[in-house]
Amino acid sequence: MAIPTFTPSTKPSAAAHLSDEQIEELGAELDAIRAEIVDSLGEADARYIHRVIAVQRGLEVAGRGVLIFSLFPPAWIAGTAALSAAKILDNMEIGHNVLHGQWDWMRDPRIHSTTWEWDHATPAKSWKKSHNYEHHTFTNVRGKDRDLGYSVMRITPEQEWKPADLIQPLTNIGLSLIFEWGIALYDLEVDRVKEGSKSKEQLKEDLKGLWRKARRHLAKDYVLFPALSGPGFLHTAAANLTANVVRNVWSHAVIFCGHFPDGTETFEEERLEGETKGQWYVRQMLGSANLSGGRLFHIMTGNLSHQIEHHLFPDIPSNRYAEIAPRVREICERYGLPYTTGPLPKQYAKVVRKIVRLAFPGGGEKPADVRQLPARRQANGTPIRLAG
Amino acid sequence: MGVLGTFGQRARAAAGWFTHPLLPDDLLSTLNPLWSTREPHARVVGLRRETADTTTLMLRTGRSWPVHRPGQFVGVGVRIDGVWHWRTYSATSRPEEPLLAITVTALPRGAVSGVLAHGTPVGALLRIGPPAGEFVLPQPVPEKLLFVTAGSGITPVMAMLRDLAANRPEALAGAVLVHCDRTPTDVVFGPQLRALADSSGLRLVERHTAVSGRLTPEELTDAVPDWPAREAWACGPAGLLDDLAAHWARHGAPESLHVERFTPPATVADGAPGGRVTFTTSGITTDTAPGTPLLAAGEAAGALLPNGCRMGICHTCVGRLRTGAVRDLRTGDLHDIPGEPVRTCVSGAAGDVEIEL
């Protein structure tokens, strides 16, 4: 994993027309939405997450139970489908959101960001650091947000092209299949050890943590439950592998559609200096893209289909994003900002097209009429506090 | 038991490999919360209205819940608008009874006590903590007993009286209960206490403060002239308990008076100006107002903190002080030695402070 280098952007930001005052007004409007939602959290929300957790556990127990008879093809199909759905729910609507602290307000030690562990290779603790802190704070800032291409892909034209990038369409397919392990390795931050900003001891510590979790993770899916199937050992192991791959491909697609499709922007590191809350909100909106779909679709994406709303309010319970979305969209329209959204196949096609295009040199806009964001604003807002 | 215990532990550890990353307990509690041993629950199966503002909740607990001793309290968690709130109440049932009874008086402006006393239907699920507290009768039971209670202070004593009536009627025969409340109809367990006095030989002295005013130690000693010969248990408002403690210290044997301070601490606000508190485990930092307990401030900021009685009795909420100083809100004592255990429920920040929780 090499440390990517970047060249300055050649494209004007979609927020270039906004004055400082407008940006702060927009920030105040979003703050007001946030306060209103936080204030209205209550019993119905608590019932929602309890229900999702109960459904997830039911699906998992049923799926694994049916897979004891995996030699019988209909059982294999039904069991694999239930287990795939359970794993997707566990990671997306439950794990990711609980680990964001979205449900900490319930003060329930059973559903709390500090006690939760998920059916994912990467330990909750490593995830909270790399995702909640780094990705959500430095969203789409080139050189700071390691989620931009996950240090293995060229996902923005400002990133300098290397010959190794030629294979990235294949890398993408491979990553999609093993996504949870990709994330686990990526959370080890081996690139930072090379760069010198992370100690070898810390890496060793993290490796131990990963191993402690991963051995149970692997034993469960590939030894213990297959063993329960007796002669169907291999069938059950294959079913579990399939469920893991289905979950990986699904979460990879949803997550890549969150920040990489056309219409999302990346930013220069200088922008972070003295960034106000309003500017932070604008960066989150311009750097994220939504997916459109029905209620079940939103739940299965962990409501990351409301990526824009999630990035504005990462610690607001995910079941509320749907009601916030039209209001955020209206704000975007009023301030002349893009609000990128579309169905999953269309958005994912855009991501793939971008990955293929950027496998080759160039790919940026023609450097005509460069209007940068008015750089180096004075810090006139409150410092950013990222919850979760 | 030892062999079975080890076997049970091994079985759970083995099952844990199958339920990873969850624990077997997580799955069991999803099916039936009463099966959980990690987060014990109880179901409300009966309600008894004691007075206009006091209700007894009859609870069915899980099998693993430990039996209380008469006089002990339990933490009770109730979900209100999605948020868990914990308060402490005395068990008022006898240990052998199949249902656990807790008796709750709705306090004026008490959001939690009001919901428990008036807004918790039969069938509701509560969470409960293990029984705790040292306000219990010793074994063997002293021959001459005196109980002094006021208001809802009768609740721990009621468990003792019921237990004595069932198991040690001879100890109850010569005992005295001096109980204060505003009017006869305000007396929690009034009819039961009067019936018990009639049937057991317990001497009941009811004092109605709306007519006769607050009980003074002198009036108490007039009513119970042989008080120095008795082992005394007292529970009620802080003012009464302070008076009794002073009286016993001056005229009697202080060690023969046992008190349960069952009211949230009266805060000594001027000693704890507040400050920024950081909980090191979660990394949560929040500003606390003067006189606010660290526990309450942390919970409001979303931290998950151990808690029990919430009034400085049970030591469940203790965390070590890393840096800074805290003040005990009840006594005003300052604690600033790094590594010192701090009861977060009754300690306020005296400047910026870090707590290892």
From TrEMBL, chain A:
This is Fatty acid desaturase family protein. Residues 76-341 form the Fatty acid desaturase domain. It comes from Pseudonocardia aurantiaca. It comes from the Bacteria. It holds the Pfam family FA_desaturase.
TrEMBL record, chain B:
Gene3D superfamilies: 3.10.20.30, Nucleotide-binding domain of ferredoxin-NADP reductase (FNR) module, Translation factors. Residues 275-357 form the 2Fe-2S ferredoxin-type domain. InterPro entries: 2Fe-2S_ferredoxin-like_sf, 2Fe-2S_ferredoxin-type, Beta-grasp_dom_sf, FAD-bd_FR_type, FNR_nucleotide-bd, MRET, OxRdtase_FAD/NAD-bd, Riboflavin_synthase-like_b-brl. Its cofactor is FAD. PROSITE patterns: 2FE2S_FER_2, FAD_FR. It comes from the Bacteria. This is Ferredoxin reductase. The lineage of its organism: Bacteria, Bacillati, Actinomycetota, Actinomycetes, Pseudonocardiales.
